[in-house]
């Protein structure tokens, strides 16, 4: 089984550049963009340890993520020697996640059809089974999973801070576990914006946390003492710490955009730039959005997806067999800890 069970019948509708332009003017685009801005504002000037309200639903989402994390122990990676590419042990993890994704939605008081759509967005949040890869398009699915819960009145604006500091950080931690366990390949992001091989949203939320900070400036990411002191407090700093832990050499070489951004005068400029870049490089790029699926909760415009032939666009390593090795996969399968690697 390579796709989530289609209880909600999600479908791809962005087949051409014309479809993408229609999507950018659609209600769903507005909903996604507005939800992102809400979450972004909810963590302004708030560190990871900030006390935030956890509702019944956000608590259930956290339990769902923990349940998914527990699946990793049931499906260890295959022993494949020195391979730096996706580990087929991921198939077992993904198949079990796919088989239980619908039942994981049982705590929510919604229709069976809605649970089906939720289950698909959740399953698509953890990468592609066939390519054993992960990228910003999969991350977008998790954002939309949360948005659908909002659409269904299971969560509200009062939950926003917890969704970022409690739920999204848990999801980020889980994805790092999957990346390190199954050596997931970067899906289309490598070399595009130079932020991170896999993620984009942590830099959006993380830069919002730092807006107005009295001492830390964008250039502070080059100070090892700052990274050590604040990695657990701020998502952005944590991301820099994680990148430094698996890649050697300067950010200038392996994460050029992060290096350039560090010259910005304020975190306000960084944050506003990140949101603009997310709209342009994720929501506005056909190589990413051609894989996105629509249903009844997040609807496609009626004029989308009516062309007979899809205008398939190739991204770097995106869906077409151009394999991009994972930096964390350069270690031997039996080594218990990551070792730093020269950037290549």
Automatic annotation (TrEMBL):
InterPro entries, alphabetized: Phstyr_phstse_ac, PTPA_C_lid, PTPA_sf
Subcellular location: Cytoplasm
Keyword Cytoplasm tagged: yes
Catalysed reactions, as listed in the record: [protein]-peptidylproline (omega=180) = [protein]-peptidylproline (omega=0)
EC number per UniProt: 5.2.1.8
Key word Metal-binding present: no
Entry's Gene Ontology cellular component terms: cytoplasm; nucleus; protein phosphatase type 2A complex
CDD domains documented for this protein: PTPA (cd04087)
Chief site of localization: cytoplasm
Keywords: Cytoplasm, Isomerase, Rotamase
Function according to Swiss-Prot or TrEMBL: PPIases accelerate the folding of proteins. It catalyzes the cis-trans isomerization of proline imidic peptide bonds in oligopeptides.
Family: Belongs to the PTPA-type PPIase family.
Protein name per its UniProtKB record: Serine/threonine-protein phosphatase 2A activator
Source species of the chain: Neolecta irregularis (strain DAH-3)
């Amino acid at each position: 089984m390579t796709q989530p069970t289609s209880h909600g019948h999600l479908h791809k509708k962005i087949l051409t550049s014309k479809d993408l332009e229609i999507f950018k003017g659609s209600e769903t685009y507005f909903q996604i963009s507005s939800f992102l801005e809400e979450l972004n504002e909810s963590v302004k000037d708030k560190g990871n340890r900030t006390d935030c309200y956890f509702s019944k639903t956000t608590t259930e989402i956290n339990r769902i993520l923990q349940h998914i994390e527990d699946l990793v122990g049931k499906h260890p990676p295959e022993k494949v020697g020195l391979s730096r590419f996706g580990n087929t042990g991921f198939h077992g993890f993904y198949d079990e996640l796919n088989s239980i994704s619908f039942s994981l939605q049982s705590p929510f008081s919604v229709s069976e059809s809605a649970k089906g759509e939720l289950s698909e967005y959740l399953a698509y949040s953890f990468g592609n089974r066939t390519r054993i890869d992960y990228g910003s398009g999969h991350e977008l699915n998790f954002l939309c999973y949360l948005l659908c819960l909002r659409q269904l009145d299971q969560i509200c604006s009062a939950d926003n801070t917890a969704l970022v500091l409690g739920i999204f950080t848990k999801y980020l931690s889980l994805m790092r576990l999957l990346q390190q366990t199954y050596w997931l390949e970067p899906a289309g992001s490598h070399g595009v914006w130079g932020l991170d091989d896999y993620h984009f949203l942590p830099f959006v939320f993380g830069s919002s946390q730092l807006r107005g900070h009295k001492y830390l400036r964008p250039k502070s990411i080059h100070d090892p003492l700052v990274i050590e002191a604040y990695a657990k407090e701020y998502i952005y700093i944590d991301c820099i710490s994680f990148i430094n832990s698996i890649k050697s050499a300067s950010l200038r070489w392996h994460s050029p955009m992060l290096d350039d951004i560090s010259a910005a005068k304020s975190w306000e400029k960084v944050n506003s730039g990140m949101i603009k870049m997310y709209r342009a490089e994720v929501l506005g790029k056909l190589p990413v959005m051609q894989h996105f699926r629509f249903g009844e909760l997040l609807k496609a415009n009626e004029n989308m997806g009516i062309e007979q032939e899809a205008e398939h666009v190739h991204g770097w390593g995106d869906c077409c067999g151009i394999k991009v090795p994972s930096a964390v996969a350069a270690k031997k399968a039996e080594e218990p800890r990551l070792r730093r690697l020269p950037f290549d």
